[in-house]
Specification:
mainly alpha
């Protein structure tokens, strides 16, 4: 129901603001621009969905090999002590555990193309044991929030963009990976916040040994990874990070195929069987994605997003706080709505002569881009793929976790980079 109100609110507010601008400010071309943006949003929604078909076919095929070879079952058993606490109502050793773990792992490595199909597969597994097919289960809500607030070990794409822009701006000895640790900390804050807020809603006691061991172990992993990465020469950090992420994914593919061969399965047929599901899943999400993108398009093209930004800046200044972070806020406001839109705004800040990629604002924009998630997109695509209509408290929890990640990004940005 909350998603319904937000969707309607974006459209009504955007159109009303557009009409008022035409009537009182004389911006006669604005409504035409909004209409064009609306049609473009519908086209983009379709193209994004169809564009996912190949990627979905690839990863669903690979996952089918892992499933038939029994590797996913082994993954499920490994994470069952932790996930049986977090995912309320999910049977012990459910095969969904393995797919959930694979999705969260892909998100950690910053591999968006791998994370989406794995997430859709995990959501479908959770839907199979959902007693109310049109209503999100507790386990599905926990999964979606952990997905949107997922930890990012390696913000691969953001680092690559920063390196490219630094070369354009002729910045010598630029360390594009210096946002690595701040992004990791910010996403960890969002992840823990997501677990806490959903646990409060669902009355889950998370103060148990498996959860505490996971949090402690992950903190140790953060420290070791940071120690290793920061000891590398600046010009090798980006390549090393990319190699780690790519190597993990390729190793998983190799593991699945070898496991299938050891069990004397027809690995090729398993891949084809899984890949056929890719087109079906892609077509299911088209109406949900188009609906979300058109509402975002109207709200953004009417100028409402800029009004929100100006209001925030005035409130911050009125409170006597430092406003240096405000130029990076467009990325934060856009990211829950559109990942590509937020990426474009991040690039605009980095290429702005007033700031630049090496500035505090440029670095903060990169941290925000790497540590927040496209909450509305994920909600529309993941729930849309399994025909969920009643999302219950998923949106509220997701936005709270996202907001905590944003606050974390701003705080660590000031601690690491503000002079």
């Amino acid at each position: 129901m909350a998603l319904n109100y937000i969707w309607v609110g974006f459209i009504i507010i955007g159109i009303v603001v557009g009409i008022l601008k035409v009537v009182f400010l004389g911006q006669s071309g604005l409504l035409s621009e909004m209409l064009t943006a609306l049609f473009d949003a519908a086209k983009n929604g379709f193209e994004i969905s169809i564009g996912l078909t190949g990627i979905l076919s690839l990863w669903l095929g690979i996952m089918k090999i892992g499933e038939r070879a029994g590797v996913i079952t082994l993954f499920s058993r490994a994470v069952a002590p932790l996930f049986s606490i977090l995912f309320k109502g999910l049977p012990k050793n459910s095969p969904a555990y393995g797919n959930v773990m694979m999705n969260l792992s892909a998100n950690m490595l910053g591999l968006d193309n791998a994370a989406t199909p794995l997430g859709l597969k995990a959501m479908n597994d959770l839907q199979e044991i959902n007693p109310n097919k049109d209503t999100a289960s507790d386990a599905q809500i926990m999964f979606l929030v952990l997905n949107t607030a997922g930890i990012t070990l390696i913000p691969t794409s953001v680092i690559a963009i920063r390196q490219t822009i630094a070369l354009e701006q002729h910045i010598p000895n630029f360390n594009a990976a210096d946002i690595f640790l701040p992004t990791l900390i910010a996403t960890f804050i969002a992840f823990i916040s997501g677990i806490l807020i959903v646990s409060i809603y669902q009355r889950i006691n998370i103060f148990k040994l498996p959860v505490l061991v996971f949090i402690g172990g992950f903190c140790c992993l953060i420290g070791l990874l940071q120690y290793y990465i920061m000891r590398l020469p600046a010009d090798q950090i980006n390549k090393t990070i990319g190699a780690i992420g790519s190597g993990v994914i390729l190793s998983i593919i190799l593991l699945f195929i070898i496991a299938g061969l050891i069990k004397k399965h027809n690995v090729y047929d398993h891949f084809i069987e899984g890949a056929k599901e890719g087109f079906t899943v892609a077509t299911k999400i088209i109406p949900y994605l188009v609906a979300m993108l058109l509402a975002i398009s109207i709200f953004r093209s009417s100028g409402c997003l800029e009004y929100v930004l100006v209001a925030i800046a005035k409130v911050v200044a009125f409170c006597g706080l430092n406003t240096d972070f405000v130029p990076a806020l467009p990325v934060a406001l856009m990211k829950p709505l559109s990942g590509s839109g937020a990426r474009g705004l991040m690039v605009d800040i980095m290429r702005n002569p007033q700031y630049g990629v090496a500035s505090f604002q440029g670095k903060l924009a990169a941290i925000i881009q790497g540590s927040t998630e496209t909450t509305f997109y994920v909600l529309a695509v993941y729930f849309g793929s399994v025909q969920i209509k009643n999302t219950r408290h998923a949106l509220v929890c997701g936005l709270i976790a996202d907001f905590m990640g944003l606050l974390g990004a701003i705080v660590v940005g000031y601690l690491f980079f503000h002079k």
